[in-house]
UniProtKB/TrEMBL annotation:
This is Guided entry of tail-anchored proteins factor 1. One of its GO terms (molecular function) is protein-membrane adaptor activity. The lineage of its organism: Eukaryota, Metazoa, Ecdysozoa, Arthropoda, Hexapoda. Residues 1-17 form the signal peptide. One of its GO terms (cellular component) is endoplasmic reticulum membrane. Belongs to the WRB/GET1 family. It holds the Pfam family CHD5. It is a multi-pass membrane protein.
Length: 158
């Protein structure tokens, strides 16, 4: 039973590794406390700037705009560190490689173990030999189950 669950989960994760990588990337790139403070200051300054008429109080409007520009500069330096393309590709393709290698290793290790056995009353002919290759009839092998789960996972869009 555990083999059925593990093989199904790994198959789905290997197909949707880009989604897994993007979720991990969201966790890694969460805004820090400093960034949250800067964003709230910027939002407050923008609200204050909206209340001021540019033509009537140009000096005050310009001072607020300079403060906003300074905050934008600080945010740009902190965001530059987070937008690392090697981290993006490493997480997405790294997850795919790890899940794929794990599936290959498990396929070799469990090649003689059936994932589950179908009742004898159900006939799987003409595909019995393909479904249960090294095992007895009506036994679904690991590599065939992974193949089926991968095909179904490709049909599901996340």
């Amino acid at each position: 039973m555990i083999l059925l669950i593990v093989s199904s989960c790994l198959s789905f994760l290997s197909v949707h590794s880009f989604w897994v990588g993007s979720q991990v990337l969201k966790l890694v790139n969460r805004p820090t406390r400093k960034e949250k403070d800067l964003l709230s200051k910027k939002r407050d300054l923008k609200q204050e700037q909206i209340l001021i008429s540019m033509s009537d109080n140009f000096v005050k409007y310009s001072k607020i705009q300079r403060k906003i520009n300074a905050i934008d500069g600080e945010l740009a330096t902190t965001q530059e560190h987070k937008n690392n393309w090697s981290l993006k590709f490493g997480l997405t393709y790294g997850a795919r490689i790890i899940f794929g290698i794990t599936l290959v290793i498990l396929s070799i290790y469990y090649r003689l173990s059936p994932v589950f056995v179908v009742d004898k009353s159900l006939d799987l002919a003409p595909f019995t030999y393909i479904i249960s290759y090294p095992n007895e009839n009506n036994a679904v092998t690991f590599h065939f189950w992974v193949l089926c789960c991968t095909a179904v996972a490709k049909l599901i869009k996340l």
